[in-house]
Amino acid sequence: MTKPGEDVVDRIVAFLGSLRLTVVLLGLSITLVFLGTIAQVNAGIWTVMDQYFRCWIAWIGGWFPFPGGRLLGAALLVNLLISHAMRIKVVARGPRLALGVATLALGLALTWFVISHVFDLDSTTRTINPSQRVTIQLIQGGGAAAVLFVACWLLFQRKAGIVLLHAGVVILMLSELFTSVLAEEGTMTIFEGQKVNFVEDSRTSELAIIDASDRAADDVLIVPESKLKEGGLIRLDGLPFDLEVPSGKFFKNAFLAPLRAGEPNPATQGTGLQVKVESRPEAAGVDSSGRVDLPAAYVTFTDRSSNSSLGTWLTSVHLSRERGAQTIRAGGKEYQVSLRFKRTYKPYSIYLYSFKFERYAGTSTPKDYSSNVRVEDPERGIVQDVRIWMNNPLRYRGDTLYQSSFDAETEKGTVLQVVDNAGWMAPYVACMIVAVGLIGQFQLHLLEFLRKRRTS
User: Fold this and answer.
1) What confidence tens digit (pLDDT) does each residue in 6-40 have?
2) Are 109 and 62 a contacting pair, CB within 8 Å?
3) Which residue range forms the structural domain that includes residue 207?
4) Are residues 327 and 370 in the same domain?
5) Inter-residue contact 240 to 209 (CB < 8 Å)
6) Same domain, 173 and 192
7) How confident is the model at residue 251 (pLDDT cuts 50, 70, 90)?
8) Cα dist from 305 to 2, 102, 245, 276, whole Å
9) Number of domains the chain is built from
């Protein structure tokens, strides 16, 4: 006889693993994709990703709560795991069970080794053909999937393919979660004869305040974009002044236009005396033009000792790139202030020897572009010449450097896309697991059909 509490738990578990819940969650997911697509009319793709898909609750229109991508993904994962636990049982017994568990452990270890790049080498150690590299990766993922299928066949027999297929789906879902949380992506722009050791993320910005009074090293303080958006008073230790961004004076994407005589102007110092800000919609982030947002902000600086204003300055990514940093004097020192794309510094640097750009004859269509670079890593004592070209990236210290674009004005500068994503192999492995699961399940049913036909 079941207790009342046990009956309630059984009902909850049955609901969480029910097909009806699966259908509802899939419907909500489709609705979320539709709403996110509509939202891109007024916002860029990365803003939509953060507000709709890489969150637990999506606020539609800024006020209506709706399950976010992470909440729906977690619910689908729980639904899948519980439904499998309810409907698919281990049928192996005795020695077959022991062999199945051992084979499963081997398959999981191989899968982990492939995803964690145990079998990979940095591009500085050897050069490999792109098609050969992809083939090797698929073979690695397929090999791990084959071992997992044998384990599932030993443990679940005729339902082995179904179990393996859904395991691939689970890995695919988890890979997106890890990518959204852990992956870092940016660009490294280098001109011929220049050496760069930082990556810029054009999706977000930061206000850099640099004290260059020490000739040995610059002292850099950073105000992240999130603080600039919030506005209000900002106080950083080590500075003789405070910062304040007036309400509504941070612009995610801005165009700078000449300031006409008599026009109202929030800026009282610096370059902002000649130009004004015109707000623009966020860049879509998916068009072929490659346009990115150019943030701008009006910032008021106040001397802490005298509580006197140092003026309101216009800071802008566009201004910083065109004219460099602006100088503010306080506490007997000079500080360089600039709004720039967020920077991540690397333990290695890339020096560009030359950039080569080829077009198809008689057209302006790119045929190939490549960069001859030198990798310098003082920590590891490595100085290595490497060529990076289309579809043949450089892999070094967990980073993948793709030949992404170039400086269109001079054609003497390269733009490398730098991706730090430890789980980039997970989708490849997941797809191979799903493929092996589908093929294996078909083979099991085919063999069973042929066996029944022979005995009939």
Assistant:
1) 688 889 999 999 999 999 999 999 999 999 999 98
2) no
3) 184-420
4) yes
5) no
6) no
7) very high
8) 74, 70, 20, 31
9) 3
